[in-house]
């Protein structure tokens, strides 16, 4: 009998935990909608109204404004990586891959400019937050790019030691250009993507040429080496357009 009571209590506890997590997720989405409507300086009153609840209800699910901010920031990271992940992983000519990655990032901040400013500015928080959502996003993207750059460099028997710092440099450049673009809006997203793609490609091209490698940026790259012929890990090679 004691085991039955304990089992029933645990089941109720799990259901309640699931309910609270679902409600938190609903309130995070409501906050994102409120930010989109009212801007990055949105207040709890606007968020509560968007959620259709009172502020005390929000505070029953979030310890304070900073707790809500972090939950929104984590959701923003998911939204960003939903676009960035496939762009980074998708195969294709190198210039096409660069543009796809750059444009994926710009598309997110273009679609959610107020959410981006809300997360970056941190003005909503009511206490210092230990977790830096923006830095974590940059680390995620830079780590993925470093792996990609390292694959390219190793494919051409080049030193891949610089892949990580180069990846961080590229992330910083694109983020800063995106900040400028959001404020100025002096060109289309497509134009900015083209400009950034050009400078990134020429940086990579210069690096390859320094090692005696000349690569057509619009030629397909493939990873279809026979597995038995190569050591473990991803590999790339240049192929003729007719072959692709």
Automatic annotation (TrEMBL):
Pfam families: TetR_C_32 (PF19344), TetR_N (PF00440)
Name recorded for this polypeptide: TetR family transcriptional regulator
Alphabetically ordered keywords of this record: DNA-binding
Chain residues forming the annotated DNA-binding region: 43-62
PROSITE patterns the UniProt entry points to: HTH_TETR_2
A GO term for molecular function: DNA-binding transcription factor activity
Record-annotated HTH tetR-type domain positions: 21-80
